[in-house]
């Protein structure tokens, strides 16, 4: 039998990280954990080290490293402790690593994810913000290094499964008319518009179908998540924004569809559980057990579809505009959204102000070309500055 693949899990303490470790633990003959990273939940990270026995563990700073080393010693473990972004990049690119799960949330994941790409790894991409903020450079790095990029986002994983196995960029070449990106509509799909001023972070994070980290839960409520996914789909599948149509499908059973020119529409279905796309990408092109229960269509009963309401979900319109403008527009949109969501979670702004802040920030700066990573981070920083100023004027 071949040697187990060695996996680095960036963002191991998060929702995707834990689901990944759950799948890995079901297949000790196939996978072995090489490295784990965490950020604020270091006790949980230590417990994961005890369970999965990685060779390396990455923490944010020196104080965290001291704590982790003491914890590892007490548990009789000898893992190497690395620190900060440099440590993350190191465990992502380590020559002995076969695959990297990129599951850090937000722009903080960009450099480590790119490090894995540049090292030519199999990269399981959950961290959509990394691709949204640096799309052209990211995909160029994938081409240059020959990395295998596999989508974890359930919609993109579904699309990947519905495309021909030998898909290479160019939807038209394989007879695809459109990508149909499904969206649940989140917790506020039917909330009266006037009540949206009052909704709380707890309500925004209570997603009807998926259990996820807090940032992506708010993005799902505002449908900025679908907007980021539209941009993500354009990069992953070489699509133009108008070739990606958003379909609200509240049951979250169909995870997305591909519409072919002959009238065939292929859909990928399953229970809403991220272990399915994770297991799919980990074992691709084979299939392994993910621990997800079989889909019970009789219990699901019906599948509903409706068009998204852009009045209710202005973030979707803003993301589509950014996708069409390209260049620095998605980078600015993503950064402004990260600041807005954090401010909403801290109760400094109300829910509808998320879209207002983003619209004001992106309309303040001209769209510029991003020809290097420094330019990406400069646009990201500028958007955060503008969002910070907006917050000082309008926030609590
Ligand atoms: P979580 O908030 O649950 O986890 C985020 C992870 O990133 C945690 O391990 C966290 O560490 C770590 N982290 C946070 N900030 C930093 C930082 N500044 N530097 C380094 N590490 C950091 O998020 P999710 O797991 O829900 O999402 C992760 C990514 O996957 C996101 O990009 C999201 O959009 C994407 N995704 C998630 C889905 C889901 O179902 N959850 C579905 C599709 C995509 P700690 O917890 O220790 O602070
Ligand atoms: Mg998704």
TrEMBL record:
One of its GO terms (molecular function) is manganese ion binding. Residues 7-135 form the 1-deoxy-D-xylulose 5-phosphate reductoisomerase N-terminal domain. Residues 269-385 form the DXP reductoisomerase C-terminal domain. NADPH binds at residues 13-16, 127, 129, 213. This is 1-deoxy-D-xylulose 5-phosphate reductoisomerase. GO terms for biological process: isopentenyl diphosphate biosynthetic process, methylerythritol 4-phosphate pathway involved in terpenoid biosynthetic process. It comes from Pseudomonas eucalypticola. Belongs to the DXR family.
């Amino acid at each position: 039998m071949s040697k187990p693949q060695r996996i680095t899990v960036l963002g191991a303490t998060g929702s995707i990280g834990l689901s990944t470790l759950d799948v890995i633990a079901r297949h000790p003959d196939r996978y072995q954990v090489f490295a784990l990273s965490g950020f604020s939940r270091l006790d949980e990270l230590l417990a994961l080290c005890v369970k999965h026995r990685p060779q390396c563990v990455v923490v944010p700073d020196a104080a965290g490293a001291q704590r982790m080393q003491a914890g590892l010693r007490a548990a009789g473990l000898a893992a190497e402790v690395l620190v900060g972004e440099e440590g993350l990049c190191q465990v992502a690119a380590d020559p002995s690593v076969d695959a990297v799960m990129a599951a850090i949330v937000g722009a903080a994941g960009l450099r480590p994810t790119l490090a894995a790409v540049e090292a030519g790894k199999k990269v399981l991409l959950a961290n959509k913000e990394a691709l949204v903020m640096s799309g052209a450079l990211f995909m160029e790095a994938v081409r240059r290094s020959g990395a295998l990029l596999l989508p974890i986002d359930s919609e993109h994983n579904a699309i990947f499964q519905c495309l021909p196995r030998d898909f290479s960029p160019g939807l038209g070449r394989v007879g695809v008319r459109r990508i149909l990106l499904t969206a649940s509509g989140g917790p506020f799909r039917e909330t009266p518009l006037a009540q949206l001023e009052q909704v709380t972070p707890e309500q925004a994070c209570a997603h009807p179908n998926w259990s996820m980290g807090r940032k992506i839960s708010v993005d799902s409520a505002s449908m900025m998540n679908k907007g980021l996914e539209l941009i993500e789909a354009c990069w992953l599948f070489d699509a133009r924004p108008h070739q990606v149509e958003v379909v609200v499908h509240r049951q979250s059973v169909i995870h997305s569809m591909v519409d072919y020119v002959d009238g065939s529409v292929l859909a990928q279905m399953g229970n809403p559980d991220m272990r399915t796309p994770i297991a799919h990408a980990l074992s691709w092109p084979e299939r392994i057990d993910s621990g997800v229960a079989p889909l019970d269509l009789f219990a699901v009963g019906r599948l509903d579809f409706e068009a998204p309401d852009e009045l209710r979900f202005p973030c979707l319109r803003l993301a589509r505009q950014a996708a069409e403008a390209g260049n620095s527009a998605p980078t600015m949109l993503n950064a402004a959204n990260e600041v807005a969501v954090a401010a909403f979670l801290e109760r400094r702004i109300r829910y509808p102000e998320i879209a207002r802040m983003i619209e004001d920030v992106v309309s303040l700066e001209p769209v510029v070309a991003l020809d290097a990573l420094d330019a990406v981070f400069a646009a990201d920083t500028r958007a955060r500055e503008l969002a910070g100023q907006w917050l000082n004027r309008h926030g609590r």
